[in-house]
Amino acid sequence: MIATVFSTVRKFYAAPPPAPPVPASQVSSLYPRYRLQALESTYIGYAIYYLVRNNVSIVTVEMQGALHYTKEMIGDITAMTALAYGLSKFLMGSVSDKSNSRRFMSTGLLLTAICNFAFGASSNYYAHLTLWTLNGFAQGMGWPPCGRVMGHWYSESERGLTFSIWNTSHNLGAGIIGVFVAWVVSTFGGWQYAFYVPGAIAAVGAVYLFLRVPDTPASVGLPPVEEFRNDYPVAVETIDLERELTFRELLFDKVLLNKYVWLLAIANFFVYICRYSMMDWSPTYLREVKGADISRGAYAVMALEFSAIPSTIFFGWVSDRIGGRRGKVATLCMLPIIAAFAGIIAAPAGHIWLDYVMLMIIGCFVYPVLGLITVAALDMVSKKAIGAAAGFIGLFGYIGRLVQDKGFGRLLDQLTASHGVDYAWQVVLYLIICCAIIAALLLALLWKLRPQA
């Protein structure tokens, strides 16, 4: 019985076989349409994933008041989802490289919608901890199929720009969720609606993904994108562009034994601390230290996310124009991030607009770094292993998020009790600056690296 169920599930999610080739006269008209569909569907789909991922940080104060949660308890909830997401992104990344992207991605979004409904319906801490951990695991089914789809429909010479455009999807989702949740809670009067309403949107989004996401060019009878664009990474006669890799090749040859993937993963650990420290804690920081209300705290997240959209696209394009040197561009982007965190420390209370400016600077530069780390991984391992490589690198990133969620939550509780809230937040901000400096030094080791796929 179990073997039958497992076999049925495996067949349902297996990568579709190559379709009969379309007539050569139709390739030039079909390819642009499918490429746009790939970008559009994964962009919208991944933005919706973010609507049901970062809800907790927006209603932290409301949950503390209604449920008597401490900052450490909130930190535990977000830390566990970070750990689950990181593990899932690694495991599901390896699976997604050999799966049907449309079915894989839509299933993950449906599962995370269910977790959000259940989270809003509960008021028990351990139930919340369990449900948000499960939500984190389901979230791991979002990025890998997007990477597979984009890697197959867009070639090496255009990855910096196209992946950067796609990468702004999470800026859109994460930016909207802050203000949207603040409006929902203010309108309906309960923190639970921060999970009910986004959950409903995610359920509809799952249907959309199931109907819309394409898999690979071969699955619809089209040639590899390198052939369509005449953009081969090496001489065409030496490679099989569409050969699926074995699990050993995915995990060992392409990922675990690749020194550049390890370096990108360790750098990602520190970059994620910089990213999520402000995503998870900036609303609380502005409300506790700078006197902002829930709406103004939510606008901090929007400022952080939306400022990244033009810069992410621009720096991705720049990395293409300088021959794919993603490490060089990423290193230079870390410098304004360090300065902006120092600016938040120096900004006086009563001038919250200064904090918004600093947050916009951080968002403007940290997201290009994250996008370029992913593209650099794709450059190193090829489109057939991007899910596994990005999953491994993402695992390190979300371990970084776990460390900052758990560590900063406990540190803030302890230092606030002994030295006051202002001192506690200053210590945390100095620790973030140290992480940003370490990330910059690690990325500098990739300064001259070019695509090697």
Structure report:
With 453 residues, the chain is mostly helical. It has one domain (36-213, 255-444): MFS general substrate transporter like domains (Growth Hormone, Chain: A, Up-down Bundle). 79% of the residues lie in helices and 0% in strands. The protein has 20 helices and no strands. It is globular, with a radius of gyration of 22 Å. The two termini are 43 Å apart. 57% of the residues are buried.
Brief summary of the model shown:
The protein has 453 residues and is mostly helical.
Could you give the topology of this structure?
Elements: H1 2-13, H2 24-51, H3 55-58, H4 60-67, H5 71-96, H6 101-121, H7 125-139, H8 143-153, H9 159-167, H10 169-188, H11 193-212, H12 225-229, H13 247-256, H14 259-289, H15 294-306, H16 308-321, H17 326-346, H18 352-381, H19 386-419, H20 421-444
Helix pairs in contact: 2-8, 2-10, 2-11, 5-7, 5-8, 5-19, 6-7, 6-8, 6-11, 8-19, 9-16, 9-18, 10-11, 10-15, 14-15, 14-18, 14-19, 14-20, 15-18, 16-18, 17-18, 17-20, 18-19, 19-20
